[in-house]
Amino acid sequence: MQSVLNKLLYALLWSISKLPWWIFYRISDVCFLILYYIVGYRRKVVTDNLQHAFPEKSLSEIKTIRKKFFAFMCDMFLENIKSISISDKDIKRRFVITNPEVFDAIHRSPKSNILLAAHYGSFEWSNSMGLNTPYRFVAAYKPVKNQFFNKLVVDLRSKYGAEVIPSKDVLRFAIKNERSEKGQRIYGLIADQSPRQINKDSLFLSFLGREVPVFTGGEFLAKKLDMSISYLKVTRKKRGFYEAEVVMIQEDATNNENFEATQAYYNIIEAQIREKPELYLWSHKRWKHAR
Predict the structure, then answer these.
(1) Rounded distance, CA 135 to CA 183, Å?
(2) pTM score, two decimals?
(3) Which of 90, 100, 169, 200 has its CA 20 to 30 A from that of 29?
(4) Edge-to-edge, what's the strand order for the sheet holding 241-250?
């Protein structure tokens, strides 16, 4: 019975993904009206996050950002569904790497690369990176309990040639493969969320006015296996169109101070958020362990 329901759900999502873009975004508009005005999904969480991040802004300004965020979140969710059937040609037109020459430089280097990203802009469409580089692209992800949605996530993220690896297995995967094939991969990691557990050794950094625990796995991996570290800076040009710049953070992580790259990563994210805050994922509890 569950298998039948999963097939029906997939058929529904596939049908939605095939709709013309103008109808597609009308559906997103309706979803926004329901989610924002009727359901009120996580409005308090979003409001609290925004007020802590921007104490200098008035309540009216906070509400404007909040409204824009929910509208964008609905677009982004529907765009993820669009990924089911979107063509390689269309995704390359809608998610453009502005400085592809960086990949040439990375490719000439004997090192693999840690490509950090954030929950900003179209972070799901960034999985199309496999279409833009001759490198093998490895995408780390956090498995979800529901088998149907877990398979859907893996299928969508591997659609453009990425090797999709559970986050907990990335270190073991990298150690094994870098020893035999050094300098052959780009490891895509989204590392701006809050760690599930913290302890006395957790690293806290300043992020939007508060001290928060941060993941350091990307930098640890780069230092351990002698990789370079970069950041995928995604911006939204207009509805359904994004540009991404690959920003090199460290070409040689092994000869830099500990956590220097992690701090630089958060500095870039914060600058992006302050410039256009509605494109950040304010609905997650990023500051639940803040000091």
Answers:
(1) 9
(2) 0.90
(3) 90
(4) 95-97, 241-250, 228-238, 113-117, 185-190, 136-141, 163-166
